[in-house]
Amino acid sequence: MGKTLATKDAVSARMREVRRVLWVVLLLNLAVAAAKYAYGALSGSASMQADGIHSVFDSFGNVVGLIGIALASRPADESHPYGHAKFETYASLAIGVLLLLAALEVGTSAVGKLVAGSYTAEVTPVSFVVMVGTLIINIGVTAYERRCGKRLKSEVLAADANHTLSDAFVSIGVIAGLVAVALGFPMADPLMALVVTVAILVTAFDVFKHALATLSDRARIPEDDLRAAALSVTGVRDAHQVRTRGTEGEVYADLHVLVAPEMTVGEAHGLSEQVEAAVQARFPNIVDVLVHIEPDDGHKD
């Protein structure tokens, strides 16, 4: 009972930390989006406005992430005995959808300018100050969010970090476009907006790929590693049918353990608890372990 309570407390602490990171990133993304879009509108730069729209969708992604984490934090109940952790995955999928909508918006605007031959961007020193300043912020946000995502094994933070990283690459493209416009190539501005579109689509693909890995119950921990943790317990002769699933932050595992045939039920039960403890000690992101005891009599069922 104590171990279950400790696990629940750890999950709750993880969710609170993820929520805090999302709030910090949301505020920074809103500041970056406002700066880029406002100056892009004033200067007539399609690529700067596109980059600003991309940053706005970053902010929407943070909001979606906060909603997903709020739902994922709910405890297990009768209708969801395994908890609500996959709502975090659904939130990352929603971020992917927002990315697709952003790509549509940016791409449509760029194509419209190219077709109409409307190249209105005005490049000033302030343009570069705005873009370089927001680029530095984006790089810092990406590093912070990615580090937190790895530490907390959060799919939402990982997806959002990739989203913000794409924004940084896009900003670099926009800066390159502004340089080209200043050198006398006004068509470069909407062309770089198309590069923005491609970058967003690539990011969306990566988000969908990671989310679908969870929803398809992809194994989260190598079978040999989990088997080694079980074999570290004295009395365990072998382990097989090792399976894991769930989100990166909340993994469910089950395995069959072979023990001496003469072992009593009470001894086998005690051994299974030792195996559970050993597995969870080695892999803290495992929130539940199901151990099936089998006699080592030459048959593996």
TrEMBL record:
**Keywords per UniProt:** Membrane, Transmembrane, Transmembrane helix, Transport
Quick check: keyword Transcription regulation in the entry? no
In terms of superkingdom, the source organism counts as Bacteria
Q: Indicate the segments forming the Cation efflux protein cytoplasmic domain, all copies.
A: 224-295
In the bilayer, the protein is annotated as: Multi-pass membrane protein
Q: Where in the cell is it found?
A: Membrane
Main subcellular location of this protein, as a coarse class: membrane
Membrane-crossing ranges are: 21-40, 52-72, 93-111, 123-144, 165-185, 191-208
What InterPro entries has UniProt attached to this entry?
A: Cation_efflux (IPR002524), Cation_efflux_CTD (IPR027470), Cation_efflux_CTD_sf (IPR036837), Cation_efflux_TM (IPR058533), Cation_efflux_TMD_sf (IPR027469), CDF_Transporter (IPR050291)
Identify the residues that the record assigns to the Cation efflux protein transmembrane domain, covering every copy.
Answer: 22-215
Q: Which PANTHER family match?
A: MITOCHONDRIAL METAL TRANSPORTER 1-RELATED
**Family according to the record:** Belongs to the cation diffusion facilitator (CDF) transporter (TC 2.A.4) family.
List the protein's name. Cation diffusion facilitator family transporter
What is the scientific name of the source organism? Gordonibacter faecis
